[in-house]
Amino acid sequence: MGAVFGMLLRYMKVTDSSALTMVSFPGDILMRMLKMLILPLIISSLITGLAGLDARSSGRMGSRAMVYYMSTTIIAAILGVILVIGIHPGNPKLRSGASNSAPKNQEVSSLDAFLDLLRNLFPENLVQACFQQVT
Question: Which conformational region is residue 33 in: left (phi greater than 0), alpha (psi within -120 to 50 degrees), or beta?
């Protein structure tokens, strides 16, 4: 249902920017949460996997894991390129009506400020969020 809904909304002309913001907000939150979990999940799974192995099989298992990760990375990159060529995400021709109606010096609305507060609850990178200082 989400894919069909997304395809239908892509070709509709929506002139209200607050409606676009509200529709894209759950997706932004989901993507931030997924990006936030990537680094701790990978590191913890590698540590627990290697802790359970003995010294002799670690070399063989490490090489197999490296081949597995490299092959899945190559497959993901090829699939990503194919999907980008097929779908054309962010094509400015599809959003020409919405971008021309927006003024150049756009003021921040209260809705944007509130949603930005909620977005910032979920940092994209936990390590960067721990060491980053906001002035």
Answer: alpha
